[in-house]
Amino acid sequence: MPDTLTITDNRTGKQYEVPIENDTIKAIDLRKIKVKDDDFGMMAYDPAFMNTASVKSKITYIDGDKGILRYRGYPIEQLAENSTSYLQVAYLLLHGELPNQQQREEWRANVKGHTFIHENVKKLMEGFRYDAHPMGMFISTLAALSTFYPEAKNIFDEATRKKQIYRMIGKVPTIAAFAYRHSKGLPYIYPDNDLTYAGNFLSMMFKMAEPTYKVNPVFERALTILFILHADHEQNCSTNTMRGIGSSHVDPYSACAGAAAALWGPLHGGANEAVLHMLDEIGSLNNVPAFIKAVKEGKGKLMGFGHRVYKNYDPRAKVIKKLADEVFAVTGKNPKLDIALELERIALEDEYFVKRKLYPNVDFYSGLIYQSMGFSMDFFPVLFAIPRTAGWLAHWQEHILDPDQKIARPRQIYLGPAERNWVPMDKRK
Ligand code: SDX
């Protein structure tokens, strides 16, 4: 049987053969379906891209029904278990293969050579109010980097592009930590390149008067795993934004700032902060049934549950739940954990959630760990943006080098008024 779709337009009785490739049809092939010859032709209407592939990608694979997530073919569980560093996974996402020893050393040296930020960037951050949200500071400062590296707009020059990638992966932890220190009125701690990526970040966040920051190995390992789990996730809202902005061929700093802005939304990367606020609102175990009842009546959502793709348990949530026990063994159990576990127990057996295939996602337990590690709630989206920067850059690079791609410019269904004439002021209602 041929790999084609035969479409019959019942308005005209005409039949059309549309080729099928990768189990999809090209939307542009629908344009030949017309009633009158001078019609524009058929389009597909797909708000929020519920069933539209906008790109071909080789980076990340998700099977939502089976709860599968793989970076360049490697299962997320194996990467979290075996990779001793986030940078190794960032290399995999950007280059397509795990680095050998030499490549790994070069990559680490290149990124570590760019962990400092220009002193003027520090001064720019000092202009924010004391209570500025750290994610707002992160987004703005990332965009400002484009003014410090004007050569970044030469996106098709490979050496220049690589240097901006080193800079961004190297600097996002520094910008994040400086935003946190600013919001606490604490002096900035400069990068310590003798530490690991996660260890250096913890040092810039929490070092006080001690000469050298003593990294807690449990926190370092937990943060490394959390960074690996959050590094990429295929065509999510913020990555789609990164590709959309990148399609205009603007510099990668401006594109990343836009992607981080999309991530900040409570339905996306802002969900782990929203989960903690939800758990605070519930307050105690005996309020859980009333809260669940309200959600089922459509009064609010169970934050940290549900996913556009996963209609099974988010594989990252499984790893994070296991990690929580290791962190709580050091910090003491987060008192909100019991409420979270009870919410999960009910949601996994209640028809309302089962029917809608709502399972805990990556954000449900991550906030509990971050809070127990000493991060403030408003910092959670920043903790998501740091590791996701490698994913955004990998997709951005794949997009601008993809011969299929052009500037992103969707069509629309126009339902507004037909042509009409100007109305002078004295004639208006
Ligand atoms: C991330 O895309 C990615 O890959 C994102 C991410 C990544 O790594 O980049 O995985 C990270 O963003 C995880 C998701 C974090 N967000 C939250 O936890 C917020 C709570 N979740 C929901 O807002 C929602 O589940 C979404 C936004 C995640 C997905 O929404 P969809 O796919 O548009 O699903 P939907 O809103 O159409 O929901 C289908 C039904 C609806 O009910 P009905 O209208 O059919 O009666 O399920 C209901 C929704 O009301 N529903 C929920 C719910 N999520 C969906 N009801 C209660 N609580 C929820 N959390």
Care to describe what's here?
The protein is mainly α and 429 residues long. The protein has 2 domains: 1-45, no CATH class; 59-401, Citrate Synthase, domain 1 (Orthogonal Bundle). Helix content is 49%, strand content 5%. It contains 17 helices and 5 strands. The strands form 2 sheets. It has a 3-stranded antiparallel beta sheet. Strands 1-2 form a two-stranded antiparallel ribbon. A hairpin with a 4-residue loop joins strand 3 (60-63) and strand 4 (68-71). Helix 3 packs across helix 6 (158-183). It is globular. 39% of the residues are buried. S-citryldethia Coenzyme A is lined by residues 233, 236-237, 267-269, 271, 295, 301-309, 356, 358, 361-363.
Short description:
The protein has helices at 76-82, 86-95, 101-112, 119-126, 134-148, 158-183, 197-206, 217-229, 237-246, 252-263, 271-282, 288-296, 315-331, 337-347, 351-355, 362-372, 380-400, and strands spanning 4-9, 14-19, 60-63, 68-71, 74-75.
Task: Offer a few descriptive terms.
429 residues; mainly alpha; Citrate Synthase, domain 1; 2 domains; three-stranded antiparallel beta sheet; two-stranded antiparallel sheet; 5% strand; globular; binds s-citryldethia Coenzyme A
Helix content: 40-55%
Question: CATH superfamily assignment of the largest domain?
Answer: Citrate Synthase, domain 1
CATH C-level category of the largest domain: Mainly Alpha
CATH architecture of the largest domain: Orthogonal Bundle
Secondary-structure element series: EEEEEHHHHHHHHHHHHHHHHH
CATH topology of the largest domain: Citrate Synthase, domain 1
